[in-house]
Amino acid sequence: MDTNQLLAFDHVVRHGSFSKAARMMDISQPTISIRVKNLEEEVGGELFKRGGSKLELSELGRTFLPFAQQVLETIDKGIEQAKLAKEGKGGKIAIGTLPTLAAHYFSSTLATLHKTHPHIGIAVHTGHNQELLEMLYEGYVKLCIMTYPFFNSELRSLLHIREPLRLVTHPEHLLVHKGEIELSDLIKTADPFLLVDWSVETKRVQRDMIGSDSDFEVPPQTAYDLLKSGMGVALLTETMVSHDIKQGTLVSLSVKGFPKLYRESALVQLKKEKEISPSLNTFIKVFSDEIEKEKFCELKSFAF
């Protein structure tokens, strides 16, 4: 059984005769008759009642017709999606990301991608660096956004993102009204200092600055929620808090002696991957554009 046989059967049904169907398909009537005959041998019986003045489907033909049309429709959709995928306008992409990177410019990337390329299917999976690596190795995802540096020689960086971290707190916190803030003031008055693990380096610096006596380590979103409730001081990304700072619901603190820190991440793929699909290239382009809209972020692209 092949698509030519199914097409012949479908055209005969639609046009009500073998001769009209042959003209529409631009083939001879004997050819279309042979295709239908071969199809009947496959399904085990006649698809049309023969001998009458009007061509009619047999019981077998009526039963088989919706399945034949479904197959043809599926093939048409498959061809359309394949063409769109080749042009970077369709297909399906699977992206892995850290949970803390699944918001802001990543979310706006997905929104823009859906609006401009609605035929591209998207699957987003989250995990920590090691889990993301496993997803890459297993072929579960093709690209990952993970903490940089990643110390793995089997990975290739496609994009490097660098965004500043800011010390922030609630507007009613005691430190807001202190004026010039010393590091000792931060240690004594943070109540508490909410340590966020953005990377090995930033975590080490926070511990060195604050000390281990006030050890209160939480995920970024938890730190954000605690700050909004009026509790503590934390180091959060500019993209995470810029809107709140503008609205006055959070306040940025300047502490003497506290170094400027950054959250660094990278969009990576396995080096063994010899190419990037058009749909993934479309994602990378939209992702880059969305990052560049964030005036706080620094973006570096690497040639494939």
TrEMBL record:
Domain HTH lysR-type: 1-58
Domain of life, per lineage: Bacteria
Gene3D superfamilies found in the cross-reference section: Periplasmic binding protein-like II, Winged helix-like DNA-binding domain superfamily/Winged helix DNA-binding domain
An MF annotation (GO) of this entry: DNA-binding transcription factor activity
SUPFAM superfamilies (UniProt xref): Periplasmic binding protein-like II (SSF53850), Winged helix' DNA-binding domain (SSF46785)
Keyword presence, Transcription: yes
UniProt keyword annotations, A-Z: DNA-binding, Transcription, Transcription regulation
Family the entry assigns: Belongs to the LysR transcriptional regulatory family.
Protein name: HTH lysR-type domain-containing protein
